[in-house]
Design brief:
With 227 residues, the chain is α+β, with helices and mostly antiparallel strands. 34% of the residues lie in helices and 35% in strands. The protein has an eight-stranded antiparallel β-barrel, surrounded by five helices. The N terminus is likely disordered.
Length: 227
């Protein structure tokens, strides 16, 4: 697993593209009562690290996770170095991966892809995220409808992470894309959904985005974000 994560760091700095966002995610099941140990290890290695158009996010999987408890997401701009090559010493990397391995009971699925549209929100205020894995028939049509909805209902999405992207490698359950929305908690999400479903703008979005097949959905909570 150490070699895989190191390859991801290299992968994030060598792809060529025009300012397209990319990501790589590793899910895992942590050993019981190691949650605090995970966040402490994360803080220790990334405390003084500086990122260039990128971030590393440690999250707890809370609902619909299919047996996994946590995930680490690497987010980067394709074609741009995520961090300086000597930003983290080899000794720190070794210590981090050693601790991480000790806290992991089972390594779960991993997957990667691109961000096709993403609005950054308040990660402290809105730390609960609802993610839908879907199959999108026409990504171009979907993005156009997505952008219109965010513009027309701007106030409802202010302060929230909102976006969608591709599953290019390791597609979970055959999903081609994902949709992403953050909020204060589960009840906050339900209130927003209830409001959206009563709006003409939402139903226009459903019509204009084209065929979308739901695969599964799940929730997570941000634990640590370094960017």
């Amino acid at each position: 697993m150490k070699k895989i994560l190191l390859l991801v760091a290299i992968f994030a700095t060598t792809l060529l593209s025009a300012q397209t966002g990319g990501y790589w995610v590793q899910e895992f099941k942590a050993k019981m009562n190691t949650g605090n140990d995970l966040t402490e290890a994360f803080d220790k290695i990334f405390k003084d690290s500086k990122f260039n158009k990128g971030a590393i996010v440690l999250s707890e999987l809370t609902t619909g996770s299919q047996g996994m408890t946590h995930r680490i997401a690497w987010q980067f701009t394709i074609g741009t170095d995520m961090m300086e090559k000597d930003a983290i010493s080899p000794d720190k990397w070794d210590a981090f991966f050693s601790k991480l391995t000790n806290y992991v009971e089972v390594w779960g699925p991993s997957y990667s892809g691109r961000l096709l549209g993403f609005q950054m929100g308040d990660h402290v205020k809105n730390a609960t995220v609802h993610i839908w894995d879907v199959k999108i028939k026409d990504p171009t049509k979907f993005k156009a409808a997505h952008d219109v909805l965010l513009k027309e209902l701007k106030d409802d999405f202010t302060g929230r992470d909102v976006g969608f992207g591709t599953y290019d490698i390791g597609r979970p359950n055959g999903a081609t894309h994902w949709m992403y929305l953050s909020g204060k908690d589960g009840e906050d999400h339900l209130k927003l959904y209830d409001k959206l479903e009563k709006s003409a703008e939402f139903w226009k979005y459903i019509k204009d985005r084209g065929e979308v097949i739901d695969v599964k959905d799940f929730e997570l909570k941000y634990l640590k974000i370094k960017q």
